[in-house]
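Protein: IclR family transcriptional regulator
Species: Streptomyces mooreae
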Amino acid sequence: MSQTVDRALSILPLLAEGPADLGQVADRLGVHKSTALRLLRTLHEHGLVYRQSDQRYRLGARLFALAQQAAENLDVREIAHPHLVELNEKCGHTVHLAVHEESEVLYIDKVESRYPVRMYSRIGKPVAITVAAVAKLLLADLPEPERRALAEKLDYPLYTSRSTPNATAFLAELAKVGEQGWATDLGGHEESINCVAAPIRGADGRLVAAMSVSAPNVVVTAEELLTLLPLVRRTADAISREYSGTAIPQ
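Structure follows.
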């Protein structure tokens, strides 16, 4: 039975390359045409493949509908939360998860620091979009015309002397973040708070969320916080693998 399932599933990536006839499917699977036909008929009955008028097979509409439904029902917060808790237990600092919705970047999860001095933030609150590390990551992933249009519409409040002052500087920062694959906010929103962030990606490679670790200067210096970047990136990668369905089952 497992061999039959394996063969049937092997047909799908073949048809993802384009329509194929019975002989091509049989050759790819290394089976007789009668076996390939039986597998194709079963997949056809479930709407996963479709037989065209030229007798070639292609992927069926139900496969796309299932993929879309699965994507819509994925909850990145639910998947990410255990990883955020584990990261917090390792480093002790505040951990955030954020997403880009329309013109805002919002915190959707937070694990509090174990230290007495904590930063003020809450789930559902928009971040300071021109300086926050998570915002830089999420906006850097936008197509260049969208980035430019958004940057030109934004206001640039000078929260501190390190705040992003204008659209030109913001676009330059986004380009840098996009190239390096991580972001920081070193006193750009609050003089005493530093932050490092890493991206969470879906199966198509696009960002679905960003996560960060933040801490005040009185707990760790900016330089000390930056040493956590490899750990933050590993955590984000683990969430990405689980979210996109590529995590290895334990």
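Remarks: The two ends are 23 Å apart (CA to CA).
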